[in-house]
Specification:
The complex is a heterodimer of chains A (400) and B (374). Chain A is of the alpha+beta class. Chain A is built from twelve helices and eleven strands. In chain A, the strands form three sheets. Chain A has a four-stranded mixed beta sheet with strand order 1-4-5-8. In chain A, strands 2-3-7-6 form a four-stranded antiparallel beta sheet, with no helix packed on it. The radius of gyration of chain A is 22 Å and the shape is globular. By secondary structure, chain B is of the alpha+beta class. In chain B, the strands form three sheets. Chain B has a four-stranded mixed beta sheet, with helices on one face. The radius of gyration of chain B is 21 Å and the shape is globular. The chains are: A alpha+beta (400), B alpha+beta (374). β11 of chain A pairs antiparallel with β6 of chain B, so a sheet runs across the interface.
């Protein structure tokens, strides 16, 4: 066991850094700085994806034969860290991190040929049709129904919390194909076009006043059966495969470290009646506690990577990092608004839109603090709420 | 000792509750995506109901009431998320005017009572953690003239105000209680530049820049270099009002969360049946009632003039920040995705209590104030 970085990895880090330095445009950099969510402004994120795809780096985590890079786990981690350090806008994950890996694992050869190149290029912009009003974390209770009719399914029902459905041209969805038996066993995984007749999309405005989420309605929507991934009524297996991917690949610590560093700089600038805020013992205590927590998370994430590169299942560590990562993100954004005091209360969402010439009121570094704090309240809810995650640890790991 | 409302206070509470029933502002919050002019019709209604007169002496045309009645009124307004600038104009503005000269009072109080004068307290500054003594903005005294230079940030109601109460340094260094002075400044005076902005909680404020703004000595409230004690007492009344309003908002957050948990079903039963959520809602209830207790402690100690009234006010604002954070975060988490939407009221209450913690010193600042005064 050791922490030393081999020479060839240092060279790889330099290569990534040089590439980022040379290829990031001012617009993309601005969008990266204005991020207040796990989802970046769409236009710039997609422009960035195209640049990465031209280099062959859009999906380092995919197998090489499907367009991945063939990098080691460590190289992928270095790449991810450098993206965070350079504050690039995060790529929209639904295609590259959810649907793509799922098709690689469970799709037919025809589906892989049709969809994977277009996911990489961004031609296909995917949204995830999982949650429903009343379903939420309890996915097995979903009700949107797909009834067979000739070569098609006819879809009726509604999906909610569909991130960026108003930008998407494709959706991967879980739908019910059987109402009898165990609820998990009657679910099917479907791919569909967002411009099909009978689909209505209603954006949902969030606390940050941005319509990031949508509700999608299906009124007798015809979806060809060939768009099914896996067997009929076996969508739960497909979805679980996708989730393993989704949870295994997430890293929170690099982003949290960057945010902590920013907060430290902000605290140096805030004067109290007794000197700068970073000299205030209460602030120091809170900051130190978060630093310690993030270090613990960072090494838990490294343990996961180490297990993965040895071909082992990291098991409970993945659920754990999801809980810790989301809750630490919430605490870090909270310390940020506390560090800024009344400066965080100023509300100027227009100034966050890349390219807008809106002058910023107050220090520019305070601009994203409150929207990010508010937006981050969602991350302990989506993808299976943290209550559900804790339940899984209790049941599956502790045997309670 | 008794904690029952008097007949008069009860009448005030009832009229405020009626008003809130008819005028709850959640829908206004939803639509309020740009700077809005003052809702003069509502403000006139406040004047007609006698609410603007609550803390003023009868000699000034007021009702001769105080922080207790303000508490009763604002708690009800907080339940409806009413946006009217009552604290800025009546509680803070009125509080400062009570310390002003007879001439200043004659010029301003009647207009304020009629609903024709808006006030703002310009206290906070960029890159300064708010405490009164941390004020840095300069006021240079030359003879009978004072020249103000500097910038005040996040001045609540600063965009709508006709009259500004400016806290500035006429001596000493940031950190000193001595050397602070208070000035009444016409918001439209030459050299005053205002940049209006919205605030996270759907209200409005302004950055106010003072470029060589001249005021006469007669515009000063209190003694030269003696503004700290006045500002401290008036701010304390402002914090009492802010907390009262927030207790109203917190009670709505709690009640709506509990109600939602009774109807929202998951895994085959209402989520309120899960013990893990029951315990957390019980803790929300405890946090809310603790805030109410500290609000009562601080208000009664202020009204009765106890020595440790200031400490109780700090404890209350600290509790408000901490309980507000906890209750707001739990309210969203238990509502799930719905709590994150602009559509439901819960998010707007969350934004209000979050914004309130950021104003006039957050929980940490007020805890430190207690620690330092011990």
């Amino acid at each position: 066991m050791d922490l030393r970085v081999p020479e060839q990895e240092k060279a790889f880090r330099d290569e990534v850094r040089t590439f980022l330095e040379e290829s990031l445009t001012p617009d993309i950099r601005e969008a990266g700085r204005m991020v207040t969510s796990v989802f970046a402004p769409v236009k710039e994120a997609m422009a960035w994806q195209r640049i990465l795809n031209d280099k062959g780096w859009a999906a380092p985590h995919w197998p090489k034969e499907f367009g991945g890079t063939g990098w080691s786990v460590t190289q992928r981690a270095i790449f991810a860290e450098e993206l965070v350090r350079a504050e690039t806008p995060p790529l929209v994950p639904m295609g590259l991190h959810m649907c793509g890996p799922c098709l690689i694992g469970c799709g037919t050869e025809e589906q892989q040929k049709e969809y994977l190149p277009k996911i990489l290029s961004g031609e296909h912009f995917w949204c995830q049709g999982y949650s429903e009003p009343g379903a939420g974390s309890d996915l097995a209770s979903l009700k949107t129904f797909a009834e067979k009719d000739g070569d098609d399914y006819i879809l009726n029902g509604t999906k909610i919390w569909t991130t960026y459905a108003h930008y998407a041209n494709k959706m991967f969805a879980l739908v019910r194909t059987n109402r009898d038996g165990k609820p998990q066993q009657g679910i099917t995984f479907l791919l569909l076009d967002m411009d099909l007749p009978g689909i209505t999309i209603e954006p949902i405005v969030g606390l940050d006043e941005v319509p990031e989420q949508c509700q999608v309605f299906f009124d007798n929507v015809r979806v060809p059966q060939k768009n099914r991934v896996g067997e009929e009524n076996d969508g739960w297996t497909v979805a679980k495969y996708l989730l393993t991917f989704e949870r295994g690949g997430q890293e929170y610590a690099p982003g949290l470290n960057v945010m902590l560093e920013k907060i430290r700089l902000m605290a140096e600038k805030q004067q109290t009646a007794f000197g700068p805020l970073n000299q205030d013992p209460v602030w120091q205590y809170k900051f130190a506690a978060l630093e310690a927590d993030v270090l613990a998370l960072e090494f838990t994430e490294m343990r996961i990577k180490s297990a993965l590169s040895a071909g082992k299942d990291p098991g409970a560590l993945s659920s754990m990092t999801m809980i810790l990562g989301t809750e630490l993100l919430q605490k870090v954004t909270e310390l940020r608004i506390e560090t800024l005091g009344s400066q965080s209360v100023i509300w100027q969402p227009q100034a966050l839109v890349p390219g807008e010439e809106q002058p910023v009121i107050g220090p520019e570094y305070a601009l994203t603090a409150m929207p990010h704090y508010l937006n981050s309240r969602a991350c302990s809810i989506y993808g299976g709420s943290n209550e559900v995650q804790r339940g899984m640890i209790a049941k599956a790991v502790l045997g309670l | 000792m008794h904690f029952q409302l008097s007949e008069e206070q009860q009448m005030l509470a009832d009229s405020a509750k009626r008003f809130v029933r008819d005028n709850s502002d959640v829908e206004k919050h939803r639509q309020n995506k740009k700077l809005m002019p003052l809702d003069t019709a509502t403000w006139q209604q406040f004047a007609d109901l006698g609410w603007l007169a609550v803390p003023f002496e009868e000699a000034h045309g007021g009702l001769g009431m105080g922080p207790l009645e303000t508490m009763v009124l604002l708690e009800a307004l907080g339940e409806g998320l009413i946006m009217a600038p009552y604290i800025a104009t009546v509680v803070l503005g009125g509080g400062f005017l009570r310390h002003a000269s007879a001439a200043q009072q004659a010029e301003t109080i009647p207009a304020l009572l009629e609903g024709k004068l808006q006030v703002a307290f310009a206290a906070e500054e960029y890159e300064r953690v708010f405490t009164l003594e941390n004020t840095a903005m300069a006021a240079d005294v030359t003879g009978s003239e004072v020249i103000l230079n500097g910038t005040k940030s996040c001045v609540m109601n600063g965009d709508q105000a006709d009259l500004l109460v400016v806290l500035a340094r006429t001596g000493g260094q940031p950190g000193d209680q001595d050397g602070l002075s208070l000035f009444l400044v016409d918001a439209n005076a030459p050299g005053v530049e205002r940049v209006a902005h919205r605030t996270v909680d759907g209200r409005q404020g302004a950055e106010i820049r003072f470029n060589q703004v001249k005021v006469s000595e007669a515009a000063r409230i209190g003694e030269l270099n003696g503004g700290y004690a006045i500002a401290r007492d008036v701010l304390h009344e402002g914090l009492l009002a802010l907390s009262a309003e927030s207790v109203g908002s917190l009670s709505v957050l709690l009640n709506e969360t509990v109600e939602y948990s009774k109807t929202r079903k998951q895994f085959g039963m209402p989520i309120g049946k899960f013990q893990v959520l029951q315990f957390r809602m019980a803790d929300m209830f405890i946090a809310m009632e603790q805030t109410r207790s500290l609000l009562l402690a601080a208000t009664l100690k202020t009204v009765e003039g106890h020595d440790d009234a200031a400490k109780a006010v700090h404890a209350m604002k600290a509790q408000l920040g901490r309980a507000g954070r906890k209750i707001a975060q739990e309210a969203i988490q238990i509502h799930g995705g719905m709590g994150m939407t602009d559509e439901l009221g819960v998010g707007h209450y969350v934004k209000r209590v979050t914004g309130v913690d950021g104003l006039f010193g957050n929980a940490d600042v007020h805890l430190m104030a207690i620690a330092r005064s011990a």
